[in-house]
Amino acid sequence: MRAACMTGLVVLAGLALAACTTRPQSLEANDPLEPLNRAVFDFNIAADRAVIAPVTYAYRGAVPRTGRRGVRNVLRNLNEPVVLANLLLQGRPGDAFATASRFGLNTIVGVGGLFDVASEANIPRRETDFGLTLGHWGVDSGPYMVLPLLGPSSVRDTTGRFVDRYPHPAYWIEDIRETDAIWVYRGIYALDVRLQLDETFRSLERSAIDPYVQLRSVYRQNRAAALARGEDFDDLPDFD
Protein backbone atom coordinates (compact mmCIF):
# COMPACT_ATOMS: atom_id res chain seq x y z
CA MET A 1 0.00 0.00 0.00
CA ARG A 2 1.44 3.30 -0.97
CA ALA A 3 1.52 5.70 1.87
CA ALA A 4 1.73 9.13 0.80
CA CYS A 5 0.15 9.76 -1.54
CA MET A 6 2.16 11.38 -2.60
CA THR A 7 1.40 11.40 -3.87
CA GLY A 8 -1.69 11.51 -1.11
CA LEU A 9 -3.87 8.65 0.20
CA VAL A 10 -7.50 9.56 0.15
CA VAL A 11 -9.89 8.21 2.79
CA LEU A 12 -7.45 5.59 4.07
CA ALA A 13 -9.30 5.69 7.36
CA GLY A 14 -12.49 4.37 5.77
CA LEU A 15 -12.06 0.81 7.00
CA ALA A 16 -14.11 -0.17 10.05
CA LEU A 17 -15.31 0.98 13.47
CA ALA A 18 -12.48 1.88 15.81
CA ALA A 19 -11.92 0.51 19.32
CA CYS A 20 -10.07 2.01 22.27
CA THR A 21 -6.36 1.59 23.01
CA THR A 22 -4.38 2.34 26.15
CA ARG A 23 -2.37 5.45 26.77
CA PRO A 24 1.00 3.58 26.83
CA GLN A 25 0.26 2.28 23.33
CA SER A 26 -0.51 5.82 22.20
CA LEU A 27 2.75 7.12 23.60
CA GLU A 28 4.74 4.29 22.04
CA ALA A 29 3.10 4.97 18.67
CA ASN A 30 3.73 8.73 19.01
CA ASP A 31 -0.01 9.31 18.88
CA PRO A 32 -0.75 11.89 21.60
CA LEU A 33 -3.81 13.06 19.67
CA GLU A 34 -5.39 9.58 19.59
CA PRO A 35 -8.83 10.59 20.94
CA LEU A 36 -9.13 13.31 18.29
CA ASN A 37 -7.60 11.06 15.63
CA ARG A 38 -10.13 8.33 16.38
CA ALA A 39 -12.97 10.83 16.08
CA VAL A 40 -11.67 11.88 12.65
CA PHE A 41 -11.21 8.20 11.82
CA ASP A 42 -14.88 7.57 12.60
CA PHE A 43 -15.89 10.55 10.49
CA ASN A 44 -13.85 9.22 7.57
CA ILE A 45 -15.50 5.83 7.94
CA ALA A 46 -18.95 7.37 7.78
CA ALA A 47 -18.04 9.52 4.78
CA ASP A 48 -16.55 6.56 2.95
CA ARG A 49 -19.52 4.28 3.54
CA ALA A 50 -22.16 6.90 2.79
CA VAL A 51 -20.62 8.71 -0.19
CA ILE A 52 -17.11 7.89 -1.33
CA ALA A 53 -17.28 4.11 -1.69
CA PRO A 54 -20.64 4.15 -3.54
CA VAL A 55 -19.41 6.85 -5.93
CA THR A 56 -16.19 4.92 -6.45
CA TYR A 57 -18.08 1.74 -7.36
CA ALA A 58 -20.33 3.71 -9.68
CA TYR A 59 -17.23 5.09 -11.39
CA ARG A 60 -15.82 1.59 -11.77
CA GLY A 61 -19.07 0.35 -13.24
CA ALA A 62 -19.47 3.24 -15.66
CA VAL A 63 -15.90 3.59 -16.98
CA PRO A 64 -14.22 0.64 -18.76
CA ARG A 65 -10.92 -0.63 -17.41
CA THR A 66 -8.97 0.86 -20.33
CA GLY A 67 -10.51 4.24 -19.60
CA ARG A 68 -9.66 4.02 -15.92
CA ARG A 69 -6.12 3.04 -16.82
CA GLY A 70 -5.80 6.10 -19.03
CA VAL A 71 -7.09 8.33 -16.24
CA ARG A 72 -4.57 6.79 -13.85
CA ASN A 73 -1.74 7.37 -16.31
CA VAL A 74 -2.69 11.04 -16.67
CA LEU A 75 -2.85 11.52 -12.90
CA ARG A 76 0.54 9.90 -12.44
CA ASN A 77 2.04 11.99 -15.22
CA LEU A 78 0.72 15.19 -13.65
CA ASN A 79 2.52 14.27 -10.44
CA GLU A 80 5.92 13.84 -12.13
CA PRO A 81 6.98 17.50 -11.60
CA VAL A 82 6.36 17.02 -7.87
CA VAL A 83 8.58 13.95 -7.88
CA LEU A 84 11.18 15.78 -9.96
CA ALA A 85 11.36 18.72 -7.54
CA ASN A 86 11.79 16.43 -4.55
CA LEU A 87 14.43 14.32 -6.24
CA LEU A 88 16.45 17.47 -6.87
CA LEU A 89 16.00 18.58 -3.25
CA GLN A 90 17.19 15.14 -2.13
CA GLY A 91 20.34 15.43 -4.24
CA ARG A 92 19.42 12.71 -6.75
CA PRO A 93 20.18 14.26 -10.15
CA GLY A 94 20.20 10.95 -12.02
CA ASP A 95 16.72 10.02 -10.87
CA ALA A 96 15.58 13.60 -11.47
CA PHE A 97 16.77 13.44 -15.07
CA ALA A 98 14.97 10.14 -15.60
CA THR A 99 11.76 11.60 -14.13
CA ALA A 100 12.03 14.68 -16.35
CA SER A 101 12.49 12.36 -19.32
CA ARG A 102 9.41 10.37 -18.31
CA PHE A 103 7.33 13.52 -18.01
CA GLY A 104 8.43 14.90 -21.37
CA LEU A 105 8.00 11.60 -23.21
CA ASN A 106 4.60 10.77 -21.75
CA THR A 107 3.31 14.32 -22.16
CA ILE A 108 4.36 14.64 -25.80
CA VAL A 109 4.29 11.11 -27.20
CA GLY A 110 1.85 9.70 -24.67
CA VAL A 111 -0.82 12.33 -25.42
CA GLY A 112 -0.64 14.24 -22.17
CA GLY A 113 0.19 11.12 -20.19
CA LEU A 114 -2.78 9.09 -21.39
CA PHE A 115 -0.33 6.38 -22.47
CA ASP A 116 2.68 5.41 -20.37
CA VAL A 117 5.18 5.14 -23.21
CA ALA A 118 8.07 5.92 -20.85
CA SER A 119 7.61 2.65 -18.99
CA GLU A 120 7.55 0.83 -22.31
CA ALA A 121 10.88 2.55 -23.04
CA ASN A 122 12.27 1.13 -19.78
CA ILE A 123 12.25 4.42 -17.87
CA PRO A 124 10.85 3.38 -14.48
CA ARG A 125 8.63 5.65 -12.44
CA ARG A 126 9.99 7.06 -9.17
CA GLU A 127 7.79 8.01 -6.23
CA THR A 128 8.71 10.50 -3.55
CA ASP A 129 7.28 13.59 -1.86
CA PHE A 130 8.27 16.50 0.35
CA GLY A 131 7.50 14.56 3.53
CA LEU A 132 10.24 12.12 2.51
CA THR A 133 12.47 15.03 1.51
CA LEU A 134 12.14 16.46 5.01
CA GLY A 135 12.95 13.03 6.41
CA HIS A 136 15.98 12.89 4.10
CA TRP A 137 17.09 16.18 5.67
CA GLY A 138 16.78 14.66 9.15
CA VAL A 139 13.38 16.05 10.18
CA ASP A 140 11.52 13.69 12.52
CA SER A 141 8.06 12.54 11.48
CA GLY A 142 6.42 14.02 14.57
CA PRO A 143 3.11 12.90 16.09
CA TYR A 144 0.72 10.72 14.13
CA MET A 145 -2.32 12.45 12.67
CA VAL A 146 -5.53 11.42 10.92
CA LEU A 147 -6.68 14.07 8.47
CA PRO A 148 -10.34 14.51 7.50
CA LEU A 149 -10.95 12.51 4.28
CA LEU A 150 -7.20 12.23 3.64
CA GLY A 151 -6.44 9.64 6.30
CA PRO A 152 -3.12 8.76 7.98
CA SER A 153 -0.39 11.36 8.17
CA SER A 154 2.10 12.97 10.54
CA VAL A 155 3.19 16.52 11.27
CA ARG A 156 6.06 16.14 8.79
CA ASP A 157 3.95 14.52 6.08
CA THR A 158 1.12 17.02 6.48
CA THR A 159 3.64 19.80 5.90
CA GLY A 160 4.83 17.86 2.87
CA ARG A 161 1.32 17.67 1.45
CA PHE A 162 1.06 21.45 1.59
CA VAL A 163 4.42 22.06 -0.06
CA ASP A 164 3.93 19.44 -2.78
CA ARG A 165 1.03 21.33 -4.31
CA TYR A 166 3.34 24.09 -5.57
CA PRO A 167 5.29 22.11 -8.19
CA HIS A 168 2.11 20.37 -9.37
CA PRO A 169 0.90 21.51 -12.83
CA ALA A 170 -2.60 22.06 -11.46
CA TYR A 171 -1.13 24.88 -9.37
CA TRP A 172 0.64 26.47 -12.33
CA ILE A 173 -2.45 26.79 -14.52
CA GLU A 174 -4.66 29.61 -13.29
CA ASP A 175 -7.70 28.35 -15.23
CA ILE A 176 -7.52 25.19 -13.13
CA ARG A 177 -6.33 26.62 -9.82
CA GLU A 178 -8.86 29.46 -9.69
CA THR A 179 -11.92 27.61 -10.98
CA ASP A 180 -14.05 24.60 -10.14
CA ALA A 181 -11.75 22.53 -12.36
CA ILE A 182 -9.42 22.02 -9.40
CA TRP A 183 -12.22 20.26 -7.53
CA VAL A 184 -12.95 18.08 -10.54
CA TYR A 185 -9.30 17.06 -10.61
CA ARG A 186 -9.24 16.36 -6.88
CA GLY A 187 -12.43 14.34 -7.09
CA ILE A 188 -11.10 12.17 -9.92
CA TYR A 189 -7.84 11.69 -8.07
CA ALA A 190 -9.70 10.67 -4.91
CA LEU A 191 -11.81 8.13 -6.79
CA ASP A 192 -8.78 6.62 -8.48
CA VAL A 193 -6.82 6.18 -5.24
CA ARG A 194 -9.87 4.86 -3.38
CA LEU A 195 -10.47 2.32 -6.14
CA GLN A 196 -6.86 1.16 -6.12
CA LEU A 197 -6.99 0.61 -2.36
CA ASP A 198 -10.40 -1.05 -2.24
CA GLU A 199 -9.18 -4.62 -1.78
CA THR A 200 -6.61 -3.47 0.77
CA PHE A 201 -9.41 -1.83 2.77
CA ARG A 202 -11.50 -4.99 2.66
CA SER A 203 -8.60 -7.20 3.69
CA LEU A 204 -7.64 -4.99 6.63
CA GLU A 205 -11.24 -4.73 7.78
CA ARG A 206 -11.56 -8.52 7.77
CA SER A 207 -8.29 -9.27 9.52
CA ALA A 208 -7.58 -6.42 11.92
CA ILE A 209 -8.84 -6.58 15.52
CA ASP A 210 -8.47 -2.82 15.74
CA PRO A 211 -8.19 -1.29 12.23
CA TYR A 212 -7.18 2.09 13.66
CA VAL A 213 -4.09 0.63 15.35
CA GLN A 214 -3.32 -1.64 12.39
CA LEU A 215 -3.51 1.21 9.91
CA ARG A 216 -1.39 3.45 12.12
CA SER A 217 1.26 0.75 12.33
CA VAL A 218 1.24 0.05 8.59
CA TYR A 219 1.45 3.74 7.76
CA ARG A 220 4.42 4.37 10.03
CA GLN A 221 6.25 1.23 8.87
CA ASN A 222 5.73 2.03 5.20
CA ARG A 223 6.88 5.61 5.57
CA ALA A 224 9.98 4.53 7.50
CA ALA A 225 10.77 1.93 4.85
CA ALA A 226 10.17 4.48 2.08
CA LEU A 227 12.60 6.89 3.74
CA ALA A 228 15.20 4.15 4.04
CA ARG A 229 14.75 3.28 0.37
CA GLY A 230 14.85 6.90 -0.69
CA GLU A 231 11.43 6.70 -2.33
CA ASP A 232 7.84 5.77 -1.64
CA PHE A 233 6.48 2.33 -2.32
CA ASP A 234 4.61 1.85 -5.57
CA ASP A 235 2.67 -1.30 -4.79
CA LEU A 236 -0.79 -0.13 -5.79
CA PRO A 237 -2.18 -2.29 -8.57
CA ASP A 238 -2.16 -0.97 -12.09
CA PHE A 239 -5.56 -2.57 -12.70
CA ASP A 240 -8.66 -2.83 -10.57
Provide structural commentary:
With 240 residues, this protein is mainly alpha-helical. Helices cover 62% and strands 3% of the residues. The chain contains 13 helices and two strands; from the N terminus they run αααααααββαααααα. It has helices at 23-28, 34-62, 65-78, 80-89, 93-108, 117-120, 130-136, 155-164, 169-172, 174-177, 181-196, 198-207, 211-229; strands spanning 144-147, 151-154. It has a two-stranded antiparallel ribbon. β1 (144-147) and β2 (151-154) form a beta hairpin. α2 crosses α11 (181-196) and α4 (80-89) packs antiparallel against α5 (93-108). The chain is globular and about 50 Å long. The model is unreliable at 1-24 (pLDDT under 50).
Question: Beta-strand level of the residues, as a percent range?
Answer: under 5%
Mean pLDDT: 85
The coarse silhouette is: globular
Radius of gyration: 18 Å
Helix content: 55-70%
Number of helices: 13
Concise summary:
The chain has 240 residues and is mainly alpha-helical.
Topology, please?
Blueprint: H1 23-28, H2 34-62, H3 65-78, H4 80-89, H5 93-108, H6 117-120, H7 130-136, E1 144-147, E2 151-154, H8 155-164, H9 169-172, H10 174-177, H11 181-196, H12 198-207, H13 211-229
Antiparallel strand pairs: 1-2
Helix pairs in contact: 2-11, 4-5, 7-8
Structural features:
240 residues; mainly alpha; two-stranded antiparallel sheet; 2 strands; 62% helix; 3% strand; disordered N terminus
